[in-house]
Write a structure and sequence with these properties.
9 strands; nine-stranded mixed beta sheet; single chain; alpha/beta; 8 helices
């Protein structure tokens, strides 16, 4: 699994080869969330910013640096929050004892006050553990999401009666604040444009893959199986609710579990609205 560890980086700024400046803002919102940001020039504050959520290796800086040049031409801001291990060890589940969702919302409010955005909606993109966070955040706050892109999630929350994080039912644990969604929120979530990207070679069950008889029976054994099952389940739920599904599974031929390789794939860049003419930078 690839990624860098931003908790060890205190350089302040990083400029990708394209010239797009990526800056580290150390304390945002009520939870002092660190974010890597890129505000292009010219900047279009009317367009929802691209919020990129890192995986377990906490590669927020890498994601911001790779994404910024791809969306700069459209004036889109990139925001990559860093949920450090000490404060948010289980950020993927969103609503654990320290609320990663509230930390992100508060950070986005601060950035909006600074003029980064004039809309309260975001284009939300998550990789691996970040894709877990992203789809759960979108279930809670679908009105804050303009578009949802999930890359190589390890597992998913299904819209069934299993307890969270496997389903929508509230868990018994006092450390989790998840509540079942209202029918209105669920309809909004099912109407979102959702793209689920997975490599055709992302079929290895590794040490970071949550496994066991129950989850394997519900979701499958590999990330690839789980992506396909979740997309099918969301399509079925939308149709049962009278909603035309706006979700698509995109398989990335030859890609494994590697953010940079997935992002470089032409299909990924096309579906993420990235400019395929701009090469990725290291």
């Amino acid at each position: 699994m690839k990624g860098d560890d931003d908790m060890l980086d205190h350089s302040g700024n990083h400029a990708p080869a394209s010239g797009c400046q990526v800056s580290r803002i150390a304390r945002l919102g009520t939870e002092n969330l660190c974010c890597w940001t890129s505000v292009p020039g010219p900047h279009n504050p009317e367009r929802p910013p691209l919020v990129a959520i890192h995986g377990l290796h906490r590669g927020a800086k890498q994601q911001a640096s790779l994404l910024a040049p791809q969306v700069a031409a459209s004036g889109q801001t990139v925001i990559a929050p860093l949920f450090d291990r000490d404060n948010w060890p289980d950020y993927q589940q969103v609503v654990r004892k320290r609320r990663a969702d509230l930390a992100l919302l508060s950070a986005l409010d601060d950035l909006a006050m600074a003029g980064v955005s004039r809309t309260d909606r975001v284009e939300l993109c998550g990789y691996s553990g970040g894709a877990q966070f992203a789809h759960r955040f979108a279930m809670l706050y679908p009105h804050r999401v303009a578009r949802l892109s999930l890359i190589a999630a390890g597992w998913y929350t299904f819209l069934d009666s299993k307890p969270f994080p496997y389903g929508l039912r509230a868990p018994k644990s006092r450390h989790t604040s998840w509540q079942p969604r209202s029918l209105g929120d669920l309809a909004t979530f099912l109407s979102l444009p959702i793209r689920v990207l997975i490599g055709t070679e992302d079929d290895v069950v590794d040490e970071n893959t949550r496994s066991g008889p129950e989850i394997d029976a519900q979701q499958g054994r590999t990330r690839r199986e789980r992506a396909a099952r979740w997309v099918s389940a969301i399509e079925d739920a939308a149709r049962l609710s009278g909603i035309r599904p706006n979700i698509k599974l995109i398989e990335l031929d030859g890609c494994g579990h590697d953010f940079r390789a997935c992002l470089a794939h032409p299909e990924a860049r096309r579906h993420l609205f990235l400019n395929p003419q701009i090469p990725l930078t290291r």
